[in-house]
Amino acid sequence: MKDLTAAKYKRKDAQPAKKKKARTTYKEYDKKDLMTFALCDAMRYIRAFEAGKPPTVPKYELAIKLASVKSGATVRNRLRLPHPILTALRICVICPPDSPIAAKARAAGATLVGDTAVIAAVKEGRVEFDRCIAHADSITAFSKAGVGRVLGPRGLMPSAKTGTVVTDVAKTVRDMIGASEYRERVGVVRLAVGQLGFSPEEMMRNVKAVVEQVKKDIAALSDRVDKRIDEIVLSSSHSPGFPLSNEFKSDESPPTKELSTM
After folding, report:
1. Calpha distance 70→87 (Å, rounded)
2. What ranges do the domains of the chain cover?
3. What dotted CATH number matches 91-176?
4. How far apart (Å, rounded) are the C-alpha atoms in residues 50 and 220?
5. What pTM does this model have?
6. pLDDT at position 261, please?
C-alpha cells in the first residue's frame, strides 16, 4: 500500500534522465607528432621481426587509413600489382562445360569450369575455389539455383557490381590471376603488397601502385562522400605496423642490396 501511495503522489514535473546523443561524425586525431619511417627503414625493422622465416611465407601488408567525416560509400576494387604476389588462386568459371567459352577459360588458368556440376557441389557444401566468375548467359540459371545462400556470405557470388559477371571470361581470368582484391572495412583498406624476399624497389612500385589506385577510387566517390588518405602503415605477418613517410630512404637506411637478400 505504501508503494502505491508513493507512486500516486509522485511529482509530475520530474524529468527523466536525458540520453546521451549519439555521435554522427568520427573523431579526428592530430598526427603531427606521429613517428614515421622511410620505406627502407620500415622494411629493415620488419625483416628483423621475421628473422628465420622463409622469404615467401611472411607477407608485407599495407594498411591505408581513410579519414572521413561520416560513414558512406566504401572503397572497393581489384588491382594487378607491378610485382604480383604468387598465390595458388583457384578460379571457378560458370558456363557450359563443353562450350568454346569453357575451353578459353581453362586455357586462361581457370581451375574449375562448369554449371550444373558446380551448383551440385556448392549445395553439398564443397566450395573448392577462391574466386567465382560467371558468363553473362549463365548467371540467371546460376542465381535461381539458390547457391547465393552459400556463396554470398563468403563473398564468392558473382555479380555485375563486382565485375565477376562478364562476357569475356578468359580476359577476366587472366586479369584476376596475380591480381589483389581490397575493400575498405572500418575506414581501413588492407592489402598484401609483397613477400619478404621482395627488394625495396619492387616494394616501392607496389606501394605506389596501391596508393595511386586508392586515390582514384576515392575520387570516384567524391560526389557522395568526402574521404582522404590519412595514414599509410606497413606491417607483416608477425610484426607491428610502421607508419610510412613519403621517403624511400633516410640517412640511416641500409643499402638496398642488404634488403634484397635473405
Report:
1. 36
2. 39-85+180-259, 91-176
3. 3.40.50.790
4. 38
5. 0.65
6. 59
